[in-house]
């Protein structure tokens, strides 16, 4: 599906993407963004385009550990905004609030420091991949629990067959490339 963000960043993502079958386990086609990160020109263009797309529309950028951090930090700096780290369980020193969520097998937990998010802020959540949507949905719950507004969920790659959007109802979900 074509959209404005796709037009800005779709090609640079596709030109620098690596696909690895059966990683990290049989049956998974792993979409690897590290070639994009290693290409300075491409990575710079990606961040420039994201910044232009969201300039003036958000107050903070939240990155999801760990690949989301790589995108959130330069985007926040480029926009002159703060970056919020939403982390896996046990990584942030307290006090924290956390949300448990379902993985394909078992459960996981995401946490954030309450002081990192302010009431009424428009927070953009960013990550590399939207798969089942569990990680992003947990991040949405954390941002909202602290009285902030989720301005949108942005991912470079959306694996549409896993229906992650269904876990993010009513939200602006934008992706660079949809598979
Ligand atoms: O939509 P979901 O089914 O929740 O999956 C998407 C998440 O999975 C990957 O992270 P992973 O947990 O592998 O961690 P990493 O970023 O530290 O590699 C990816 O970076 C997303 O955060
Ligand atoms: N297929 C995939 N490739 C890369 N990261 C992922 N996270 C969840 N599914 C993924």
UniProtKB/TrEMBL annotation:
Keyword Magnesium included in the entry's annotation: no
Gene3D superfamilies: 3.40.50.2020
Pfam families attached to this UniProt entry: Pribosyltran (PF00156)
Catalytic reaction(s) noted: AMP + diphosphate = 5-phospho-alpha-D-ribose 1-diphosphate + adenine
Domain Phosphoribosyltransferase span(s) in chain numbering: 42-157
GO BP: any one term: purine ribonucleoside salvage
Pathway as given in its UniProt record: Purine metabolism; AMP biosynthesis via salvage pathway; AMP from adenine: step 1/1
GO annotations of cellular component type: cytoplasm
Entry keywords, A to Z: Cytoplasm, Glycosyltransferase, Purine salvage, Transferase
Documented EC number(s): 2.4.2.7
Family designation: Belongs to the purine/pyrimidine phosphoribosyltransferase family.
Function: Catalyzes a salvage reaction resulting in the formation of AMP, that is energically less costly than de novo synthesis.
Protein name: Adenine phosphoribosyltransferase
The organism of origin for this protein: Gleimia coleocanis DSM 15436
Gene encoding the protein: apt
């Amino acid at each position: 599906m074509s959209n404005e963000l796709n037009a800005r960043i779709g090609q640079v993502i596709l030109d620098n993407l690596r696909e690895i079958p059966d990683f990290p386990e049989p049956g998974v086609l792993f979409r690897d963004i590290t070639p994009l990160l290693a290409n300075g020109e491409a990575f710079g263009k990606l961040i420039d385009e994201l910044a232009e797309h969201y300039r003036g529309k958000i107050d903070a950028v939240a990155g999801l550990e760990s690949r989301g951090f790589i995108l959130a930090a330069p985007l926040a700096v480029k926009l002159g905004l703060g970056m919020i780290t939403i982390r896996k369980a046990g990584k942030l020193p307290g006090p924290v609030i956390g949300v448990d969520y379902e993985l394909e097998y078992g459960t996981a937990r995401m946490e954030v420091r309450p002081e990192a998010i302010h009431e009424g802020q428009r927070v953009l959540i960013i990550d590399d991949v939207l798969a089942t949507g569990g990680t992003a949905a947990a991040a949405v719950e954390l941002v909202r629990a602290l009285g902030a507004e989720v301005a949108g969920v942005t991912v470079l790659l959306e694996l549409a067959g896993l229906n992650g959007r269904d876990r993010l109802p009513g939200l602006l979900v934008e992706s660079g490339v949809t598979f």
